[in-house]
Amino acid sequence: MSLLAGLPTVMPGEIPSPSVGVWHLGPLPVRGYALCILAGIVVAVWLTQRRLEARGHRQGIAIDISAWAVPFGILGGRLYHLITTPQPYFGEGGDPWKAFAIYEGGLGIWGAVALGAVGAAIGCRKHGVAFRDFVDAAAPGLAIAQAMGRFGNWFNNEIYGAPTDLPWKLRIYDWDTSAGRAIVDAQGNPVVKGYFHPTFLYEALWCLLLAAFLVWLGRRHSPRSGQVFAAYVMGYPVGRIVIENMRTDSANLILGQRVNTWVSILVFLLGAYLWRRFGRMEQPPTPAPESDEDHPWPAGAAEADGQKRKSTAETAEDPSVAERPDASNGTAPTAPEVDRPAQS
User: Fold this and answer.
1) Do 8 and 172 meet the contact criterion of CB atoms below 8 Å apart?
2) How many CB atoms lie within 10 A of CB 201?
3) What's the CA gap between 185 and 146, in Å, rounded?
4) In terms of Cα–Cα distance, which of 222, 224, 214 is closest to 278?
5) H/E segment holding residue 328
6) Cα gap 300→206, rounded to integer Å
7) Which of 200, 149, 114, 164 is nearest to 41 (CA)?
8) C-alpha span between 248 and 261 (Å, rounded)
9) pLDDT tens per residue, range 167-196
């Protein structure tokens, strides 16, 4: 199948959706959802590296720590989805093996951030980076990765709101989740389900605004270490609560509200607590080089060698320097003996 097959056809007054979410290069499936997730991870790691280097850390440190954070984050995101939406997998008529089909969608951001932070903490400990320094550097990139990941929902024709006829209405097809493509009619044309609010796009735009705010906050207000991450933890739920209540996909409810709405409230409160706590903590020390191998001599040797060279140069230029009091031991050189006349 051509990679161009199923791409959206642009029509005025609407946002189109792809009619195909997976393409095959021989036996290899290429899924739009996975590509969006991977692209978001690449951008997040790149931006985190740039921000860490600006704080004095070495090149490649973000990749080393992300090697722990990313797998933990994917696992946490999937576990959160399975816990909060178990029916398609473990309910009546569910398929437990589908729990491993991450490519079909289903990653909860709360679980991804929680377990991703655990992985990041392990990576930071192994590579000698202050955890608060790392999460501050990672926060804007994490928000951008979320925005890019939401376009994976667009490829899967999911995460949309109520029907609408607004100029930015989203065209949605009747979707075959297992095949990763739209259901077609007798003539082979994809069946249009209707036009809905593009809540995936609303959330993506909110995440981009949040990322810009976090960068501005760090540059203009010099928050304490860890507070940029705390601002992310507070900021994302604000938009998510609004958008969550616009979505029409099925979800478990608690007291009439979607589970993610309640979790968003709890996460906001956690972010407020972290902001206050980090504001009271001492700043982490300035990072030192990881080893003396990065320098032609051990730490401190440069200063000692420079003092020695300076002393030698002064002595060569002015021989009288050798007769000056020795600053190292506080004694003066002994004056040369001369012949004195005998006293009468």
Assistant:
1) no
2) 20
3) 34
4) 224
5) none
6) 49
7) 149
8) 13
9) 999 999 999 988 889 999 999 899 999 999
CA distance 172 to 48: 35
| pLDDT value for 301 | 44
DSSP H or E segment with residue 191: none
CA 146 to chain centre: 9
pLDDT at 287: 55
CA–CA separation, 208 vs 10, rounded Å? 24
CA–CA dist 67, 69 (Å, integer): 6
DSSP 193: E
**Amino acid identity, position 65:** I
Domain residue ranges in the chain: 22-280, 292-317
Tell me the β-bridge partners of 194: 172
How far is it, in rounded angstroms, from Cα 63 to Cα 42? 10
Closest CA to 66 of 132, 144, 121: 121
The mean pLDDT of 93-119, rounded to a whole number, is: 88
pTM above 0.70, yes or no: yes
Strand partners, 28: 25
Which amino acid does the sequence have at 175?
W
Alpha-helical (H) ranges within the chain are 32-54, 61-84, 87-90, 109-127, 131-155, 199-220, 227-244, 259-280, 301-317
Summarize pLDDT for 35-50 with one digit per residue, the tens: 999 999 999 999 999 9
How would residue 131 be classed by pLDDT, with cut points 50, 70 and 90?
A: very high
Q: What are phi and psi of 291, to 5 degrees?
A: -160, 165
DSSP letter assigned to residue 161: B
Quickly count: other Cβ atoms within 10 Å of residue 70's Cβ: 21
Residues in the chain: 344
**Exposure of 138 in the CB half-sphere (CA atoms within 13 A):** 29
